[in-house]
Amino acid sequence: MNDPYGRLKARFNRIGALGEASAILGWDASAMMPEGGAASRGEQLAVLAGLSHELLTAPAVADDLAAAESQGTAEGDFWDEQNLQLMRRAFRRASALPTELVEAATRANSACEKVWRHARATSDFALVRPLLEEVIRLAREEAAALSEATGLSPYDALMDGYQRGITAGDVEPVFAAYEHFLADALPRAEAIQASRPAALPLPGPFPVEIQRALCRRLSERIGLDYEHARLDESAHPFSGGTPADARITTRYDERNVGQALMGVAHETGHALYERGLPEAWARQPVGEAAGMAAHESQSLIVEMQACRSDSFLRWLGPELHASFGGAAEPYDGANLARLWRHVERSFIRVEADEMTYPAHVILRFRLERALIAGDLRVADLPGAWNEGFHRLLGITPPDDARGCLQDIHWYDGGFGYFPSYTLGAMAAAQLMAAARLAVPGLDEALGRGEFTPLIGWLRSAVHSHGASLGFQELLRRATGKPLDPEDFQAHLRRRYLGG
Amino acid sequence: MNDPYGRLKARFNRIGALGEASAILGWDASAMMPEGGAASRGEQLAVLAGLSHELLTAPAVADDLAAAESQGTAEGDFWDEQNLQLMRRAFRRASALPTELVEAATRANSACEKVWRHARATSDFALVRPLLEEVIRLAREEAAALSEATGLSPYDALMDGYQRGITAGDVEPVFAAYEHFLADALPRAEAIQASRPAALPLPGPFPVEIQRALCRRLSERIGLDYEHARLDESAHPFSGGTPADARITTRYDERNVGQALMGVAHETGHALYERGLPEAWARQPVGEAAGMAAHESQSLIVEMQACRSDSFLRWLGPELHASFGGAAEPYDGANLARLWRHVERSFIRVEADEMTYPAHVILRFRLERALIAGDLRVADLPGAWNEGFHRLLGITPPDDARGCLQDIHWYDGGFGYFPSYTLGAMAAAQLMAAARLAVPGLDEALGRGEFTPLIGWLRSAVHSHGASLGFQELLRRATGKPLDPEDFQAHLRRRYLGG
Fold first, then answer.
1. What is the pLDDT of residues A261-306, one digit of tens each?
2. How far apart are CA A285 and CA A13, in angstroms?
């Protein structure tokens, strides 16, 4: 049977199934696995990754790609065409990396990540420095190989692995403009905040059982269908699993109900994106999400745009009060907003508010770009971090644990990912503005605790496109323009600067 | 590098890792997965099975096996030699089956199993009959192909897949002798039972939370280490996972604490076998368990021999009483024995006591052997079942739901497995007798709730051998003789006939 594209689809279905299996095993490792299973789990995941890489880079793939590209897919269907292009892209990227390099990097990343845990706990950068140097040496080799294969710069080639089609050149002016905006907006937001009454703390404690039930109800209300999903606990909340079987996690703190609730809102946004991907293209490249910035836009539109909105917090307050009792005043929507939208210069990215968060990302973007370019030595990283942090936010980390040691990404070999967080936040604001125009009564619905108008719009404007559109094209179709950071700034002005 | 055996070990490590991944995904499907994940999970498992089959039957395997066999392994090490033989065996069996046949059987089994669920619920054999006919047609094709490759008879070739080295010819006289024993022993056991005071029911209800904690404590006491294990719930209790990461399940019934406790004892026995396999041979054929009969011997020695012994029940009674309160008398060890060692002719295998259980197995063994030989038509199965059941136990199933529809095995394409249950029960009695001789004070230890003497002996006599010894050789080394059904009968005489 001479059907090269059909053969490729069958092959990518297998690759996709290996990816799904790995996703479930990864979820299990974080949410279920006893500690003693770690070594064998590592071996299982390494074997699945190796087999996937072999399937992707087999000589037959090159032949089938060339034949399918010259034949064209059946009737030139748009989805098939995009699928074939994404197959070519996956093949090109995977073939660019020699197996020995991938294996050396996997080993180096794993060794570095282990030592990093101790280094962070003791704020001892010197401990992990030589291992990070090796990780970066190999990441630079990978970047060079990917650069050669893609024609992108080495750092862009890494970024492209997380968010196709976005380069440092696209990001830098956006980030520079934000830096400029923040220098003015942050002191003003702080002054406005200081002039208002202090937030009343929620009384607490918040029994975990009640939080768990609330989180489940919130995620169901947002739109997660538990015939195809689970909510569990893990040290670091995440969204994993597969489109048909979404697995989200959170963690519960008896003193802080906002953390679990807003965390679950965030992960539900991710999970709904996966659930809304086109089922007919399951396990095909074009059936995947459009990239990590697109993914983050979906978690942030649910968490930051919808669930932290005035409308929704006004609805949520009485619900929480009914669950936990005590005085009613702290559960007033305006008080919840003061509590859960508090702007503050702080050292830890994952705890940052939405206005200062981009500063954390901008710093990392510039530093990792310099590390990959060879313009920054690892030995100079702590100093460069602290200096850059001070320039952006006016405070200096008291130690490296609260500085360059705080995030796992680099120590696990992840370079080029950080910009996705802020691109996602910006895209979320832009999509929300478009949704408000397209769907009358969207905020009123949120004020009744109803997400159907918002999620219905996202289903059709974002989720259902899979990876058939790139990040910019997705935004262009959904909002009439490519990424426009102005929408995010307008959102922050409305929320924090009184319009 | 010309190291054919080294290449084979690397290849079988990958095959083993795929098996481990499938085991965790299988556990997840039964214990965790939301229902909506079923279809994609099926695809994931099919892809892993397909890749495993390809790795096992690749042309390079034949070359490497031939080269390794002619070179010999390093210094003729016993374990390496056995490993190589088991590689050859796995290759021979896998290569015997054409891919199309395996795929057709997988589809037919899956289709039949789905319909069987309805058929059993409505006791409607006619509904599933045509699908079972197709399943058996393909199973006979597989058996014929395996027979050709192994030189065994078709049914023996299927049995060999579950318990290497055991044939129907070995089993038939053992089962015939048991049938003879039972005809005399069962009425006597019933008469003795009837002459004794009736068992006092345990008061109950037994809150699930308390049962859960008790089950965990019992399994820990037996020897399960939760750094490498989990205990969860599922509709059908099982033991799964991997040697480094054992996953056992049970189900809780508020009216019946014995079911969960004895179920967990059983699954703990399976899990301890996996945990005790030689770690140095993880993911190699020789590092696996010695077969399904050997596996069942390990669950049954823990459940039936140890946990239902007078000594242990005397210890367990006061523990349960302390947990649940109420009157003390029902928790007396002798009363627990009357409750949990009650002999009764009944229709459902999985609920049968240890004396009548083999009759259920003997019936299935004879019927499936005839089905595979082509001597029994599917249309005649219900009648043959009921007739055979009456001959063995003197009662006739009132419907097919309590007759030939009760077990999933055949409807899912599993033929040749049933004998393992009773071979395991017999081996458990034989091993227990040997353990009592080898380890002084073993029963006294059980009477103090201590399993270390028994499990320590099993570690060295059974678990640590992996698959380096066959079932008979394992028994010969551990007990001084191959399978001897007399030990099981002696056990039953002591326990049910007063010696």
1. 999 999 999 999 999 999 999 999 999 999 999 999 999 999 999 9
2. 9
Active-site residue, selected from the candidate residues A148, A179, A267, A288: A267
Residues sharing a CB contact under 8 Å with residue A255, sequence separation 6 or more, in sequence order = A204, A205, A206
Inform me whether the pLDDT recorded for A249 exceeds 90.
yes
Mutation to test the B interface, candidates A231, A245, A247, A281, most B Cβ within 10 Å: A245
Residue with structure tokens 């007919």? A280
Q: Which pLDDT belongs to residue A73?
A: 65
Residue A317 tokens, joined:
């307050």
Rounded to two decimals, the ipTM of the complex is 0.95
Using alpha carbons only, give the angle B190, B195, B199 rounded to the nearest 5 degrees. 85
- Tell if the CB–CB gap between A21 and B44 is shorter than 8 Å: yes
Q: Rounded to whole angstroms, how far apart are CA atoms B243 and B284? A: 12
CA of B140, closest CA in chain A: separation in Å?
29
Q: B51 falls in which pLDDT band (50, 70, 90)? A: very high
**Which domains does chain B carry?**
1-96 (no CATH), 165-499 (1.10.1370.30)
- Euclidean distance between CA atoms A43 and A302, whole angstroms: 36
Cα–Cα distance measured from residue A5 to residue A8, given in angstroms and rounded to the nearest whole number? 5
Report how far Cα A180 is from the mean position of its chain's Cα atoms.
24
Give start and end residues of each alpha helix (H) in B325-356: 333-340
Please provide the average confidence, as pLDDT, over all residues in chain B.
Answer: 96
Give the list of residues 6+ apart from residue A3 with CB closer than 8 angstroms, or none: none
Q: Is A267 marked active-site?
A: yes
For the record, the structure tokens of A186 come out as 């942050």
Based on its alpha-carbon atoms, the radius of gyration of chain A, rounded to whole angstroms, reads 23
Burial class (CB in 10 A: 0-12, 13-18, 19+), A253: middle
The answer to whether residue B1 scores a pLDDT higher than 70 is: no
CA distances to B221, B265, B458 from B452, rounded to whole Å, are 9, 14, 10
**How many Cβ atoms are within 10 Å of A435's Cβ, its own excluded?**
24
Question: Per the structure block, which two tokens stand in for A126?
Answer: 């010197």
Q: How many residues are given for chain A?
A: 499
Q: How many residues does chain B have?
A: 499
Euclidean distance between the first and final Cα of chain A, in Å?
A: 64
φ/ψ (deg, to 5) at B451: -105, -5
What is the pTM assigned to this prediction?
A: 0.95
Judged on CB neighbours under 10 Å (0-12, 13-18, 19+), B375 is: exposed
Q: Does A60 touch chain B (CB under 8 A)?
A: no
Gap between the Cα atoms of B340 and B345, Å rounded:
15
Cα distances from B172 to residues A193, A417, B165, B178, B389, in angstroms, run 85, 65, 14, 10, 17
Q: Is the pLDDT of residue B249 over 90?
A: yes
Q: Which of B25, B34, B228 sits opposite A227 (nearest CB)?
A: B34
The one-character DSSP state at A20 is H
Q: Which of B12, B28, B40 is most worth mutating to test chain A (most A CB atoms within 10 A of its CB)?
A: B40
Query: How far is the C-alpha of A468 from the C-alpha of A462, rounded, in Å?
Result: 10
DSSP summary character for residue A497: S
The predicted structure's pLDDT at residue B86: 98
B75 φψ region: left (φ > 0), alpha (ψ -120 to 50), beta (else): left
Residues sharing a CB contact under 8 Å with residue B499, sequence separation 6 or more, in sequence order: B493
Structural contact between residues A264 and A276, judged by C-beta atoms closer than 8 angstroms: no
> Pairing between strand B239-242 and B245-250?
antiparallel
List, as one string, the DSSP characters of B408-445.
Answer: STGGGT--S-THHHHHHHHHHHHHHHHHHHHSTTHHHH
CB A167 within 8 A of CB A159: yes
